[in-house]
Amino acid sequence: MRENSWHLRTPTTEHFQWYRNLIDLNELTLEWQEELPHPLPSSFIPPGLSPEVSENRWMLDSLSQTPLESFLDDTSPQDVLYRLERMIWAMQASIVQQIEIQMTPKNGTKIDDAMNQRAWKLGKICAKTRWENLVVKKSHDLRDILFALHDSPFAGYPHRDGFLIRRALAQEVQIELKSCPHHIPYPEIKTSADRLCRLHSYWITGFAHTLNPNIHIEHIIQSPRCVQRWFFK
Q: Could you tell me if 177 and 227 are in contact, meaning their C-beta atoms sit under 8 angstroms apart?
């Protein structure tokens, strides 16, 4: 049995779930980095971050192979995860900004399509990993799939419920997104919020399609909250 040092606080189930969601969010950033025409140095840090957040940059490259306990320090697990979360969001926004800067009329469409497909792919992987039973079942009730999406990086957990349900029927679901990039409280992502929101919608679509390939999702960016409508083709 692992023993923690006296000054380290033991993480709870909530912390482990939060960490798992951050790993999947960071995997999306790493995937998009592959589309940069001119790669950034491994030491790249998004501008404007405080030193205590920036110092977490080194964690990101091996996040999926590292247990949460290895990152704990003399602050609470929640503090560590908040700093890590902000670092991940800032990196994701910066990678999207860098891709837009480096895109040209010649390669723009190709890179756009590739980023969408990478988001779609990781959504599928998450659904298969977390909801194997529903993948086999291929549920024809959209409420089952919406329930499954609550166990995903975009569900707002553990800060809040990420979805405001406007309509929930077996054949149609309408939700407002309460935790999309437009509502993430970190200033570093504001200029990339529209772009990130559209890309994340491809992730969600890949997730949903894995549970039933006949689902169609309409994604609308609007104020005060972006909206998705799900229905079967």
A: yes
What amino acid is encoded at 213 in this protein?
P
- State CA 124 to chain mean position distance: 13
Looking at the domain that runs over 112-232, which CATH code has it been given?
3.30.1380
CA 134 and chain centroid, separation: 21
Convert the pLDDT of each residue in 82-94 to its tens digit: 999 999 999 999 9
Task: Read off the pTM.
Answer: 0.93
Can you tell me whether residue 217 is helix, strand or coil?
strand
Residues 57, 63, 66, 69, Cα dihedral to 10°:
60
User: Residue 73 corresponds to which tokens in the numbers above?
Assistant: 């320090």
CB 9 within 8 A of CB 77: yes
Strand order, beta sheet including 215-220: 163-168, 172-177, 226-232, 215-220
Amino acid identity of residue 4, one-letter, is N
What is the Cα–Cα distance from 68 to 187, expressed in whole angstroms? 26
Residue 43 has a pLDDT of 86
Domain segments of the chain: what residues? 13-102, 112-232
Residues 6+ apart with CB under 8 A from 64: 23, 26, 27
Q: Give the C-alpha separation, 163 to 200, whole Å.
A: 14
List the one residue out of 13, 202, 26 whose CA is nearest residue 114.
Answer: 202
